[in-house]
Design goal:
about 120 residues; globular
Length: about 120
C-alpha cells in the first residue's frame, strides 16, 4: 500500500514540477524567447518546448497517456541537457535539467514496476 502511494506521489511531484516550469516559461516569455535566441534557436522552438512540458506534465498523470507524456517530458528535458552541454553553459544551467530528467526517469520506472504493472493500473 505504501509503495503504491510513494509511486503515485513521485509521479505527481514530477508532473507538478514540469507543469510549473512550463507555466514559468510562459509567465517569463519575454525572457524565454531571447534565451533560446542566444543558442541560435527560433522562437517557435521555445513555444514547442513549453507546449511539450505542459502537455507532457498533464498526460503523465493520465494512466492511458502516461507513456506519451513521459516521452514528451523526456524529449524536452533531454533537448535542454544536450543544448547546455553543446553550448558549455556550465553546471549551474545544466544541473536543473539533469535533475528533472533523472526524476522523470525514476518516477516512470517506479510506476512501471507496480505489482499490477502499467496495464493493471489502467483497470482501476
Amino acid at each position: 500500500m505504501l509503495s503504491r502511494l510513494v509511486r503515485r506521489w513521485a509521479l505527481v511531484m514530477v508532473a507538478a514540477v514540469f507543469l510549473l516550469r512550463g507555466a514559468g516559461r510562459i509567465a517569463a516569455w519575454d525572457y524565454t524567447v531571447p534565451s533560446f535566441a542566444v543558442w541560435g534557436y527560433p522562437a517557435w522552438l521555445a513555444g514547442l518546448l513549453v507546449m511539450a512540458e505542459v502537455l507532457g506534465a498533464l498526460l503523465v498523470l493520465m494512466t492511458p497517456w502516461r507513456r506519451g507524456g513521459a516521452i514528451l517530458l523526456g524529449l524536452g528535458a533531454g533537448f535542454l541537457v544536450v543544448t547546455h552541454i553543446v553550448f558549455a553553459d556550465g553546471w549551474r544551467a545544466l544541473a536543473p535539467d539533469l535533475m528533472l530528467l533523472a526524476a522523470l526517469t525514476l518516477a516512470v520506472a517506479l510506476r512501471a514496476r507496480s505489482p499490477q504493472g502499467p496495464a493493471g493500473a489502467a483497470r482501476r
